[in-house]
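The material for today's practical consists of a large collection of protein records. An example says more than a description, so a record of this kind follows:
***
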Amino acid sequence: MRTVRYKILRRIYLLLFLLIDFPVLGFAQQTSQTLEILLQAGPSHTFLRGRELTDQASGDIRPVAGLALRYQLNRYFLQTGLLYENKGNKEESNNLVYDEQGHLQGEQLYTVRTHYHYLVMPLFIGKNVGQTGFYGNAGVYLAYLFKQQVSAFDEDLNLTPYTGRIDGGLSAGIGFSRSLSNTWRWSVEARHNWGLLDTNKEPILTGGTLKTTSTNLLLGISYAIK
């Protein structure tokens, strides 16, 4: 199931890169230039991949928020910024419950959540689709881990010393934006992030890797400095 998903995502990345078409020559022909400060926030669906047990775990909904700078040249734009993103997954299981005399009372559902707290810096090339308000972007991202923890039974286990600090990968998205005034604009964007680096500091004895994946729904508002 996940193999099919990966193939579809690769095709989406390819289509987005073709849409953007590396418009270096187009930049030289544009005359309207705008720098936008963009505030974005929203939910993110995230999961880990790379090992059989990890692939069977459920994804989870986490927050993402941050600031971006967008350099607009008519139909094309360059974008970077800094975002906070909480990546990971969750696993649900049942725990047997006993009374003080050791008699089985039943089962209790519990959830184990893995949290990777990242500061993410993306770098995109984007293209606006005519005057429709729709746009597409694609590029790369670099992320710095400032904390990694596992949460279960109302307790947190800090695993940051055993986790690689740097993550990176590919990103692509589609969105829609509209002007509120001459300087203000709102937007909504769906963005997929595909981690390429193993998050483990040391190789896993049982084999495999742990890589991050997330799909963000970003609501934004921007201010244009013309």
Observations:
- The chain is about 15% helix and 65% strand.
